[in-house]
Amino acid sequence: MITYKDAGVDKEEGYKAVEKIKDAVKKTHNENVLSGLGSFGAFYALSDYKNPVLVSGTDGVGTKLEIAFTTKKYDTIGQDCFAMCANDILCHGAKPLFFLDYLACGKLDSEVSKIIVGGVAEACYKAECALVGGETAEMPGFYKEGDYDIAGFCVGAVERDEVITGEEISEGDTIIAVKSSGVHSNGFSLVRKIVTNYYENFNGKEIYKELLKPTKIYVKPVLEVLKKVKVTGLAHITGGGLVENIPRIIPDGLCADIEKSNIQILEIFKYLQSKGVPENEMWGTFNMGVGFVIIAKDKYKSEIIEILKQNKEEAYVIGKIIKGEEKICLR
To answer: DSSP code of 242?
Structure first.
C-alpha cells in the first residue's frame, strides 16, 4: 500500500502552512473582500468607482530566488513578487485592489512558506491591497527539495477617463526618475554569472544582502502624485532597463531624450560592471538606479518631486521628450 505522503506530498504540512499565514492574510482584507481563505474562489466588491476599468498583471521573481535558497533568506522575495505585479498595473494609473500568489516547491516546509507568503501579505498591507487567495503546490521529483518558485497575479482599477497609456505624452514633457532600491528582480541570470560567491564582500557586508533587497513598491507615492497632478506617462523599469521599458509608452514621432550623466547610478551596478559586463549590456539589462519613471508637463516637475519626497521617495529629472523616430535616445 502506498500513500500520497509516500509519493512525497505531505498534506498535513500543507494544512500547517495555511494555518500559519491566516492572520497575516486576514490583516490585508477590507470591507470589499467578501470571502475568506478556503473558498474555491475569492469575492471582491468594487466600490467608490463610477466607471471602473480593471487592470491586471502577473509576474514572478525569477532566478533571484536561487540566491534566497542558497542563503536561506526568504523574507524579501514575497515583496518582490507583489511589487513586480503591482508596479506594472500602476503604470496605467490603477490602484491595486487584490492579489493572489502561487508557491511551488519540491518539499513543503511550512515555516519557509510562512516567511515567503508572509512577505507577500506584508507587501499587500503596505499598498492597501487585499491578499485574497493563492495556491501552494508540492511537486516532488519536479522541483528539488529546498527549491521554491513564486509568482503572483494582481488586479487593480482606475476610472475609465483616468487611464494612463502614454498617448498624451507630447514634445517638451519632462522625464522624472524615481530611485530604485537596487537590482530589484530583473537581470539575475546575469548577476549569478558574475557573482558566484554570495558571501563575498560588497561595501563592508556580504553581497547577498545587497542583492536580496526587495523591489520597491511605488503604489502609494505614485497614487499621491496622480491625485494632485496630471501626468502623461508612467513606466516600471524592469527587465531591459530604461532602454526597453520607456519606449513602451512613447507615441510614434517622439523620443525620450535622456543623458546617462543625469542618472544617479547605484554602487551595486558599478560593481557589477567592474566584473566585465559591457556598458551597453548594463543599460539594456538593469534599472541602473531608476525603478520607476514619471512623464509630465515641465511645469509640474517640482511639484511631482516634492510629493514624492514627502512620501519618502527620491526623484529627479533625467530628460525630456523631443521629436524623433527613435523612441529613446540614451546618450
So the answer is: H
DSSP 200: S
pLDDT in tens, 211-255: 999 999 999 999 999 999 999 999 999 999 999 999 999 999 999
Number of H helices, E strands in the chain: 11, 12
Nearest to 146 by CA among 108, 119, 191: 108
Do the strands 95-105 and 130-138 form a parallel or antiparallel pair, or are they unpaired? parallel
Q: What is the DSSP letter of 163?
A: -
Residues of the chain with pLDDT under 70: 38
CB contact at 8 A, 78 and 121: yes
Sorted by sequence, the CB contacts under 8 Å of residue 21 that are 6+ apart come out as: 113, 114, 117, 118, 121
- Amino acid 8: pLDDT: 76
CA pair distance 239, 319, nearest whole angstrom: 21
Nearest-CA neighbor of 191 among 83, 277, 283, 291? Answer: 277
Q: Would the CA dihedral through 137, 142, 143, 148 be positive or negative?
A: negative
SS3 132: strand
Question: Using CA atoms, how far apart are residues 47 and 87, in angstroms rounded to an integer?
Answer: 22
Q: Where are the alpha helices (DSSP H) in the chain?
A: 11-26, 64-71, 77-90, 110-126, 188-194, 207-211, 219-228, 241-245, 267-274, 279-283, 301-310
The length of the chain in residues reads 331
CA distances from 191 to 74, 241, 274 (A): 18, 14, 12
pLDDT, tens digit, 9 for 90 and up, residues 80-127: 999 999 999 999 999 999 999 999 999 999 999 999 999 999 999 999
State the pLDDT at residue 192.
97
Q: What is the pLDDT of residue 35?
A: 78
How does DSSP classify residue 141?
A: T
Angle (CA) 85-90-93 rounded to 5° is 155
∠208-213-217 over CA atoms, to 5°?
165
Instruction: Give the model's pLDDT for residue 87.
Output: 98
Cell of 222: 505614485
Report the DSSP beta bridge partners of residue 179: 290
